[in-house]
DUF3326 domain-containing protein (Anabaena sphaerica FACHB-251), 346 residues
Amino acid sequence: MQRPYTAILIVPTGIGAAIGGYAGDALPAARVISQVCDRLITHPNVLNGASLYWNIPNAFYVEGYGLDKFAAGEWGLRPVHSNRVGLLLDQGIEPELMLRHLQAADAARATLGLNLTNHVITDAPLNVELRISSSGASWGTIGNPDSLLRAAEILIKKEQAEAIAVVARFPDNIDKEATQNYRHGKGVDPLAGAEAVISHLLVRTFQIPCAHAPALAPAPPEPDLSPRSAAEELGYTFLPCVLVGLSRAPQFIVNREFINSLQADIWADQVDAVIAPANACGSSTLLSLSQKQCQIITVTENKTLIQVSAPALGIKSIQVNSYLEVVGVLVAHKAGINPWSLVISH
């Protein structure tokens, strides 16, 4: 019997990816790729669609820092039937907006049957600030990271949370031009880089699945809104997709030698293929996997602000134009067929 065919789909966050740089617009790619893999490992930036989400039964929702540690062979992934998800709320969220997020959690319990803990509010506002780098990529800072960590510790120790959904109050005075570009399907998500900072800190500290949803004041309707950004305009909160993703996110195995191995556990040496934008190949995950017996597939149509190609890093890859072509390469690879044997050479 052949072992399960495992692929990783990466779309780095905050770099203006043409596909995956908006509100869950990489979900169609994930859905179709999942049809030709036994296991698809990907991250919240790919699967989060604000009020929209899609249950892909063979997909594994892995936060970016955890994905890097997995690819490096330091952590493993253990699939679960469900997680008890803790909700961590920023004290800086105004009462009405706080209520909206608590009602979203209630809806997830009542309508989706998710297992959520009591929520915890940080003991000080997190004071998130947003930044744009010289390259145009987004990032950010947390004014009170210790408060974030204390709240997470309460959720883990007192509420027995097995995964953490964070909602931090993000500034409303975001660069207007950047915001308009994003809502029109251009430019960079100005929130994404700061979101990654928050989730990375919690995963690194507690080795627990985590994802973030920003709290923002509702924006006025935009008549020329891009369909790729529209999922974020459907409600008062981006929390639903995060709760759904975390409910089945795999747990991290951080001490392989001290943990009884299960047949379902996944390790980096079991990854068969990794897919990434052609000019964004500098991620830690891809660099680690390029050192293993793993097929690298890069997609030229998925343009980003970053200009780091596989050839520039000395990484051997198969370059294709679209995610539709990725599917063909994966099917051939899974079947043990050299993809180039299917191409007429000239």
